[in-house]
Task: structure prediction
Amino acid sequence: MSTISPLLTGLCDDAALFPPGNAPLESAVPAHFAHTDSAHADLVGPFVFPETRLAELPPVLADRGDRTLPLSLTVPGGTDSVPQALDKVRAVDGVRLVALEIAVPIDQSVPDLFAALEEIAAAAPGVDIYVEVPRDDRRPDILASLPGAGYRAKFRTGGVVADAYPDEAELAAAIEAAVSRNVPFKATAGLHHAVRNTDPDTGFEQHGFLNLMLATHLAGAGAGTDAVVAALADRDGARLAATLGALPGDAVAALRDRFRSYGTCSIGDPLSDLTALGLLSGHESSAVDEGTHA
Result:
């Protein structure tokens, strides 16, 4: 029986290959399968994979048995790179494409983006399409166009340089814009812990994934921008966990319909944080840590 609550089900996409974890592919794939066999299996989403490395997958999957690897395929080259990526992924035995995460090149107009997305959706029925919404003046128009087309948003919440981290006000504005337009979204990069923190090695201010969850709930409840910003800045993990843990079922369902998942390069890190905060029980992170560090 699963011990993962609806609040946390499918929350953590397995991005073990990405910085700062950078796990070797030959160990990351077996680790993903181990997670999906564990008591915390329901916490884990698809395996996030860069389309530029698809040629490396077949030998790693040769010993998979009857397993199928669910892929959320990142396409940093944008919509022009998707048709070839789809051809490549269809040629790999043992994978199931569940999502595309498509970047928007700096020179692509909003009309051209959505014309290309329409063709991609027709070529990949049943696949969730996430648009990595850029942090420029195209963001409002892209977010306004997503719901009618049925696509989802992807927000970057960090990276390997300080400028990659949006501050609380910018991230709050993105969350409120998505929620007000009924655009489901996921987050990626920089969410290394459950709670807002300062990285001791880099000094970067890092968002917490529980902060994003509470901010999303408050945005949906019409709490106002100040409350959303305050939730993103809160460093009291016990308070965040208690507030989220006390949400009624309908509020949890609404929250997770909006905030679908986030990418983590180490499933062991959120598992450890959530256990320490009392949102999970009976899990030993050391037994499932894939050897990467978020």
Remarks:
- The longest helix spans residues 110-123.
- DSSP finds twelve helices and ten strands in the chain.
- The radius of gyration is 18 Å.
